[in-house]
Amino acid sequence: MTPFSICIIDDEPSIREGLSMALEPDYSIQAFVDAESAFEIILNTPPDLVLLDIGLPGMNGIDVLKKLKETFHDLPVIMITAYEEINTVINAMKTGAYDFIVKPIQMDRLEITIRNALSSVSLRREVELLQEKCIREHMPCFIGESNAVQDMMDFIKMVAKSPDTPVLIHGETGTGKELIASAIHFRSPNCNGPFITVNCASIPKDLIESELFGYEKGAFTGAKTGGKKGLIEEAENGTLFLDELGDLSMSAQAKLLRFLENGEFYKVGGTQKHYVKTRVVSATNKNILEMVEKGSFRRDLFFRLGVVNTKVPPLNERCEDISPLSRYFINMYNEKFGKQVKGLSEEAETTLKQYQFTGNVRELKNMIERGVLITKEDYLSPKDLGVAREMASGHPPLGYMDTGHSLIPENIPEAGLDIQSVLHRVEKYYYKKALEITSGNESRAARLLHINHHTFRYRHKKMP
């Protein structure tokens, strides 16, 4: 087991050396004479605990403590102080110090204090490992070997620390945006509160306001006699997830903006002001910024909802995750259907890595479900998955056209397709082809495609 790491910041050589010698048998120790030199190391590799002298030269111990707690909220800091500085220690405790030790240092007391502080660190680590294990086991969008999966896990850990900062998730259909929102909720301080999902596209535009904000008795024909609590109120002290954000009406956008700014809202047909504390996480597969430019989405709401933004990469951009995801889904459907499918055949694995997923992880999941259900073999074949065999040999399957850059379905598959993703791939192919023909001359390439030079340059720069 890796030993806990302790950072000692003290300008007295005897204190630094004495503490280092006493603690090194049990801990990994780094000692610094001042805060400035310590910060360079701490910011890159945060320790598990800091022993901090209050009377430092340069930046004093209280200022160092404030800076540490701003950057690493959960980092335990034990203050080292002379007896005459005891009033300063009171300020340190208010600022977030774990405890304090008075000079001359009694090692028995210090070691007990360190053990107590690190036991809370150890408990927090165990909770985080359990949370991460739960997320990976129950949320397939986080299963994989790509850097994108790890980056998403890191993003969730970062934003989950805040209980109320709005988050906006961009991504194609089927990438797992709702699962990411759920993971943020269950790792946040709001985890004991409700997680309420609203699909803005599935609610008629004339009902979305009453669904979100609720309504009073007699607000409209057919209203319940006692009125109704809205979904925002249902999500109090938890998380409200707004899926398909781009389908919100302009009037609902205005009321949502007011709520985000100060937590207040009015029910439909009501005059009483209500206050609710909840976190709002939104998701969209549309280009909201483009909608802002066209005037169909409020600019101020876009920036308010997107205090923190992230884009979920499509499955086509992380092919190394297809095999582990497939194994996960095979095990899932083996259990569901009472089967014992061992895995993918080599041909099926090759085929899936060449396949252009328009429905992302959801489409792969549906393929595996079909395969496990109908197969009579130990290993799933391309036929079991409903994918043409020709893809494995590098030839485009029947019903697909080969752009040389990607495979585009000629017909709409049973699972449907993400038209924006398809159009994006076609556009990317022709931009690349035009630049090849013109030897990289953007002006000539733009003329070939009958578009403005500035539009060509702008859109080309935005392409991944």
Structure summarized in a few sentences:
This protein has 464 residues and is an alpha/beta fold. The chain contains 19 helices and 18 strands. It has a five-stranded parallel beta sheet with strand order 2-1-3-4-5, with helices on both faces. Strands 7-10-13-6-14 form a five-stranded parallel beta sheet. Strands 8-9 form a two-stranded antiparallel ribbon.
Q: Explain this structure to me?
A:
By secondary structure, this protein is α/β, with parallel strands linked by helices. The protein has 4 domains: 5-127, Rossmann fold; 139-313, 3-Layer(aba) Sandwich (Rossmann fold); 316-417, Helicase, Ruva Protein, domain 3 (Orthogonal Bundle), CATH 1.10.8; 418-464. The protein is 46% helix and 15% strand. It is built from 19 helices and 18 strands. Strands 2-1-3-4-5 form a 5-stranded parallel β-sheet, with helices on both faces. The protein has a 5-stranded parallel β-sheet with strand order 7-10-13-6-14. Strands 8-9 form a two-stranded antiparallel sheet. Strand 4 (77-81), helix 4 and strand 5 (99-102) form a beta-alpha-beta unit. Helix 3 (61-71) packs parallel to helix 4 and helix 17 (419-437) packs across helix 18. The longest helix has 32 residues, at 107-138. The chain is globular, with a radius of gyration of 28 Å. It starts with a strand and ends with a helix. Residues 389-400 have low confidence and may be disordered.
Describe this protein with a few key phrases.
single chain; 464 residues; alpha/beta; Rossmann fold; Helicase, Ruva Protein, domain 3; five-stranded parallel β-sheet
